[in-house]
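#struct-help
A.M.: can someone run this one for me? Single chain, 373 residues.
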Amino acid sequence: MDSNETPGTSNGVPSPQPPPPSFSARMAVLWGDGLGKAAVRSIQVLAVGAVAWAAVVAATRIPLVTTPVLLALILASAMAPVVRWLAGHGWPRALAVLSSFLVILAASAGIIGGIVTLVRQQAGALAVRAEAGIAELQKSITTGPLPFSKDQISAAQAEFQKFLSGGSLGADALTGLRTAGEIAAGTVLTAVILFFFLKDGEKIRTFLIGFLPAGHRGTAHLAAERSLLVLGSYVRGTLIIAAIDAVMVLAGLLILRVPLAVPLAAVVFLGGFVPIIGATAAGSLAVLVALVENGPVPALIVLIILVVANQFEHHVLQPIFMGRVLRIHGLVIILALAAGATLAGVIGALLAVPLTAVGWTIYRTVAASRTTN
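D.P.: on it. Structure tokens below:
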């Protein structure tokens, strides 16, 4: 090399320098490492979560629309096998739909009306005995081996009442059941939507799936079919399990000669529609009544019956009647119940588990489709 030449020159002529990297290239380097990829995925998760949260909040703001649609969808899923069976045995589809619709309306009105009437007729006696049971329980606590002062108990009661009156659970429950007019309108709307779901469910599903890209429609149809199967199995299984829980509690109350056995069993039946904790929580009223009318030993026996019924439901009845549905850990179910109750009160607690089961079914279907492809 000539001593007069400098690096980067050739015969005194500067060699061309590579152009500086473009902005997109610099961004690719910045977001292409491990931390950048994690940041991108985090932004994606946050965006999807924000959209999902906005959808949930919007749905809870219009319960007069959302609740009838979800209830009608669940009932239609449970009734669909009956409609298909009647249509397969020569019934015209319109007649099969109308017959199933009228039967389910009559059965629902009879069961719910009978239970509500029975409970309302005995509501005064139940309230009196429950208050006496609470007083008896308070007395036992204050005189027990680990006594609490009356001031401590009163403070705890005040805090609990404050939670019920000011917390979102009580507020949402009262909002959902604000007036009898809203209940009547929701019931009528549910019946109308249920009829159209039974009559034109396939057309509605095809119409909605038609908005998806063509390559995803097959998976969407499969996910919808499996979700309907899950919902139908859940409703039928829950109804059977709630009835068995109520019969077990009723038998125990009758043997122990606990007053108001039939309305107490009806309360347990209604509570059975909330999985895992519903029947046991509703049965606590029976424990209080037994404590007042029959003493601590019968009350303890009633509590044992409730615990046994809960375990029998969890380990025997649910695997038999809902083994293909609730393939979800009990902790997930409890968290779903808590979230549903917080967002939509009583209705949210009733709908949380079936919606969680449907969401899990859709996820598994989509994941299996991606693995296959």
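A.M.: thanks! The radius of gyration is 30 Å.
D.P.: also worth noting: DSSP finds 13 helices and two strands in the chain.
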